[in-house]
Structure formats: C-alpha cells, structure tokens
Amino acid sequence: MVETKRGPASYHYVCTRMRVRKSLLIPKEEYLRMLNMSLPEITRSIGETGYKKEIDELATSFSGIDLVEVALSWNLAKEYQRILAITPGALRHFTENYLRSWDIQNVLTILRGKMQGVAAGRIKELMIPAGMKDRAFLDRLLAEETPERVVEALKGRRIHQTLEEGLPEAMETGSFANLENRLYVQFYDELVRDAMSGIKGGRIFLEYIRLEIDVKNIKNLFRLRASGIEEEIRDLMIPGGSFTPRELQVINTTRDRDEFIDLLKKRVHSPPLKSALEGLRKKRPIREIVVELTRIQLDQMERMSKRHPFSICPIFVYLEKKKHEVLNLRAITRGKESHLPAEQIQGYLVM
C-alpha cells in the first residue's frame, strides 16, 4: 500500500519517508553560519527553509523574534500531524501515545500562565500544539478564567485526576514542579505498560522508552547535584528504566564525583552512554552536561533505527530531531535578541 489521501501508508513507505525528511533538516554548518548573522538575517534565512510558509502566513501578525517563534511552533505542530496522517497500525498507536507529552507541556503552560496573570495571547504564543490536543481544544482551555476551571475542563482525560490532586499544592506554593513531575511519571508509566501489552513492535518501543527514561533520570541527578539537593528525591525520578527510584536515591547521596559516575556506568547498558558518563567526571556546567546527554540519546536512537529500519525507531528519530531543530533555532534567535556571544549561544545547541 502507498500513501493516499484516504489513509496511512505501509510501514516500509513511512519509515523511508522519515529518512528522507531527516535528510532535509538543517545541518550543523548552517547553525554555525547563523551564529554570525544578525536577527533579521536569521529570520530571512529561516524563511528560505521549510519554515517559509509559516513565516509568510504570520508576517502580517507578528514580527522579529515573535514571528520566528510562532512560525516554528506552527510548523512543528503541522509536521507532526502530517506524520500521524500517514503512519499505519501499531506505529500510529505508539506515536499518538508518545506525542501526549506535548499535551502535558501545553496544559502546564496554560496553568502557569493563568496563575501568573499572563495575557492569553502571550500564553498562546508559548504553546506548541504538536500533541493529540489540537489548537482548537487548547484555545478552549485558554478561554477558561482560572487554573481550576482549566483542570475541570479536562475531566475525563487521562491527566485530569493527577491535575486535580496536585493543583492545590501548586497554587499554594506558586510552583508546578511537583505536579509536572507527577504528570510525567504517569506518562512514562503508561508508555511502559503500553509497550508491554503485546502490541506488535512493543519490544522495540520499550527499548526506546527505557533509554529515554534513563537519560532523563541521569540529567535530573546532575541537576540535583548542581543545586546541592541531597534529601529524598525518589518522587522526582521516573520508574521504568535501568534504575529503580531507590537506587537513584542512593546514587544521589554519593558525594564523590568519581564514585557517582561509576555507580551510573555500572547499570547503564548503552556503550555510548557509558562513554559519555566517563567524559563527565570533570565538573562542567549543567547546561553542557544536559546537551551532551541529549546528543548521546539522539545518537543511540540513530543506532536503534539502523538495527530496526522498519519499526517505530525511524519515526521517533525524525520527531526528536525535528523538535531539536526547532529548539536550536529558538535558542539562536533568543540568544541574538539578548546580545549573547555566539560561543555562548552555541553551547545551547544540540548538533
């Protein structure tokens, strides 16, 4: 079966299209060239790429960095929906569930904005409707007057109970960090159970999800160490990876950096991730550590994609690399607007 207007295409066709799309992403050399441009020059350069349609459509309503950011968000959302439209069977099922992370991000953006009194228009600019809740649904949430009303409007959705239970604390403390963590713990728990439910391709999906959980937990451990947080952290860790939350708690209390790295390396199964951890023995800024771990995760995804060329992996590789293209372009434009040196901006890019 080939791609048609009526439905999805075959596994082989979709995975091949993902590799073609990936080859069209902005290369490292172009990012480096943008670092030496002014913001108007960068905007023009982005407008000459796959973002041209969105830049042209939005140019009458936005300008400067706002134009770039909204255009990038619209493009990403539309691209993800185009991919879903041609993705068949179990691949579509796994992809839909994976993209729900964007729904969590968007709902939290609305809740934070409502609590802080941010104008609805500004909140909308910050949202990226790339998940399963489309722009119209998010607009309805945005129209609600209070965070409590937003949560009530989500009744019957998977995240409603967790939001309802966690919102009072978030409103009282002024921080959504604990609620956000609970939502993502729930999200990954559902993904792991979905992968183990017997659906075709679940084993490979599980391998990918466990890699992502490991990298997220390791990033969080480095962030906690950088912040000097030594107390109970099990509730901040995501179960389902190579480490249990209890093991991560023990690792976090290890003050000696070499011993900390050794404990992490002992449990991770990925040789590139082990190698990356070895390179982090010397103290480095947390920003550099996060970028390095993200780069290794993308590299591992590429390896999985080559081992399983007609699986969920080629789709997820493209989804993640497309996301990081948008994040890179945002980092460059924001950095230029803030007059940061090119070398500093480059440190935020995943290339």
Q: Ends: how far apart? A: 35 Å
So how many helices?
18
Overall body shape: globular
Output mean pLDDT: 92
Topology at a glance:
Layout: H1 11-23, H2 28-34, H3 39-46, H4 52-58, H5 64-86, H6 89-116, H7 120-126, H8 135-142, H9 147-153, H10 160-173, H11 177-195, H12 202-227, H13 245-252, H14 257-267, H15 271-278, H16 286-307, H17 312-337, H18 342-346
Helix pairs in contact: 1-17, 3-5, 3-17, 4-5, 5-17, 6-7, 6-11, 9-10, 10-11, 11-12, 12-16, 14-15, 15-16, 16-17
Please explain how this structure is put together:
This protein is mostly helical and 351 residues long. Among the domains are: 87-201, V-type ATP synthase subunit C fold (Up-down Bundle); 202-309, V-type ATP synthase subunit C fold, CATH 1.20.1690. The protein has helices at residues 11-23, 28-34, 39-46, 52-58, 64-86, 89-116, 120-126, 135-142, 147-153, 160-173, 177-195, 202-227, 245-252, 257-267, 271-278, 286-307, 312-337, 342-346. Helix 12 runs antiparallel to helix 16 and helix 16 packs antiparallel against helix 17 (312-337). The radius of gyration is 21 Å and the shape is globular. The two termini are 35 Å apart.
